[in-house]
Structures are given as C-alpha cells and as structure tokens.
Design a protein that fits this description.
Helix content is 71%, strand content 0%. By secondary structure, it is mostly helical. It has one domain.
Length: 160
C-alpha cells in the first residue's frame, strides 16, 4: 500500500465501539437491529417460526434501506460536488431504493410462510427507531454546540 492510499482508506475505518462518540448511523443501525430482534422474538412466541422469519426479513429490509441511503452522501462527500448534485443523487437513489423495497414487499406477500402483520409491525418499529436515534443524535449535537443561545420564544427575551 502506498502512502497516497492511506489517507483515503483511513476515512472508511470502522469505529471501535458504538459509544457516545460513534456516528449516528452506527448507533441507529445497532438500535434498529435490536428492536427488530425483539420484534422477531415476540412474533416467534406468538405466531411461530413464520413470525421469526418475517421479523428478521423486515429488519433486514429496513436496515438495508436506510443504510443504503448513506451511499449517496459518501459519494457526494468524496467527489466534493455541489449541493444541487448531491440532492439530485439523493432523490434519484431514494426513488430507486423505494421501488426495490416495494417490489420486495410485493414478492414477500406471495410467500405464505411469511406473516404480513409481523412484517408491518417490525418495519414500523425498526424505521421509527432509526429515525428516533438520528433525531436524538442531532438534538444532542446541537445542544452540545457552544455559542450564544437563541431567543426564548416563551418569554420573548434573548439570552446571551
């Protein structure tokens, strides 16, 4: 490996742990997998093996959908293109990913071994978890930022 390749590869290293300093997408993926596993185990206890397989399938679909959404962001960051190009690429890949998920759900509907309600509940729970982790990370990052506080909209006063 040459010295010119090292800085590029250093950017793609995995974090050692998913602690407080880990990127939000790592925490979201792990939380989503945990919620999907819980949903799968509950479905296994109530529906049977079909519920377990349905829950694990739905969890994989949600993680793949959201995680693949990171690819356009990495591409735009590495190419250093403008915001317009990044938005166009993000919307194009979002439409493609959504079409693939809908086709996968349509095919899963035809498999009798899979339980439809389990798939639906697991998708909603996992997607909600993914979004909640990103919102919490964004709020935490914003509240940890030093600087002047914004106006207090309740009292109408500006705090220093």
């Amino acid at each position: 490996m040459t010295t010119t390749q090292r800085p590029f590869m250093r950017r793609f290293r995995r974090p050692a742990s998913a602690g407080p300093g880990a990127p939000a997408h790592v925490l979201a993926r792990r939380a989503c997998l945990a919620v999907g596993t819980v949903c799968s185990l509950v479905a296994w206890a109530t529906v049977g093996t079909g519920g377990l397989v349905s829950g694990l399938t739905a969890t994989a679909v949600v993680v793949a959908f959201f995680w693949s959404g990171m690819v356009p962001l990495f591409i735009v960051r590495e190419l250093r293109t403008g915001a317009g190009t990044g938005m166009a690429l993000l919307l194009l890949t979002y439409t493609l990913r959504l079409a693939l998920v809908l086709m996968a759900l349509q095919m899963a509907r035809q498999i009798e071994a899979l339980d439809g309600p389990t798939i639906g509940v697991t998708i909603v729970a996992s997607a909600s978890t993914w979004i909640a982790v990103h919102v919490a990370a964004s709020v935490h990052r914003r509240s940890a930022r030093p600087g002047p506080a914004g106006p207090d909209y309740v009292t109408g006063e500006t705090t220093p």
